[in-house]
Amino acid sequence: MTTTFTGNEGFRWFIGAVEDRDDPLKLGRVRVRIFNVHSEKSNIVKTTDLPWATMLNPINSASHIDVGISPTGIQVGSVVVGFFMDGNDGNTPVIMGTICGIGENKIEKHDVPKEAREINSINKTPTGPEPASAYAAKYPYNKVIKTERGHVIEIDDTPDKERIHLYHRSGTYSEINHDGRKVEKVVDNDFDIVIKNREVWVGGNVNVRVKGNVNILVDGTYTVESKGNMKFKAPRIDLN
Residue 118 sits in a domain of what CATH number? Predict the structure, then answer.
């Protein structure tokens, strides 16, 4: 039967495994070997012969003229569920979502990121006064986005241990714990650029330790005012 228009033949859905994601159109499409439709033997149905499947984006993505959430993220090997837009013709698949599972090794072959399963796989080596990680997540409260190269975003609603964590695989990160304490660590150069004015207000003490040199260049007036005593602990002060 040939489809006269989309939806005319009813809803035909499927489950399959992704074999190719290098979409030449860069639309996020993937090639899927659909269970009970395509032969499991690649010499009978080659990966290149599989139809490209389109992604079904969430409703909070415009998916229109360079605006929205990119439909990328699925990997080769991901198990997906979808439907055929052309019904029984089965040539125009659409992916609705992915399916998580567990392999024989329940720790390493689990499809859900470790951080969402009460396992903190991010090893941080503290530097100077850097506090230990505030990770104390309990399943199922930690919402995690983890990429294949190891970048991690965590929004953790664990009761009394709420936390927001943005981590780059290099070790640079920003973390806010349940008390609102914020820790930022940059493992390489850091640039902080403000085009207009900046004000800094600190309710407590400020401690600054620099292991290298300090150079300050001021084009205007440099004013230092202290309501208490000013102390200098330096072997020599050169004001020239």
Answer: 3.10.450.190
Residue 81 lies in a domain: yes
Together in a domain, 80 and 133: no
Q: Do 22 and 60 share a domain, yes or no?
A: yes
Tell me the β-bridge partners of 154: 144, 165
Residue range of the domain that includes 34: 13-99
Q: Is the pTM higher than 0.85?
A: yes
SS3 content of the chain, % helix, strand, coil (to 5): 5, 25, 70
**Phi, psi of 220, rounded to the nearest 5 degrees:** -110, -145
What are residue 164's phi and psi, to 5 degrees? -125, 130
Does 55 map to a domain? yes
What is the rounded CA–CA span in Å between residue 49 and residue 72?
A: 21
Instruction: Quick: pLDDT tens for 92-139.
Output: 999 999 999 998 776 678 999 999 999 999 999 999 999 999 999 999
Supply 40's token pair. 């499991």
Q: Whole-angstrom Cα distance, residue 34 to residue 114?
A: 28
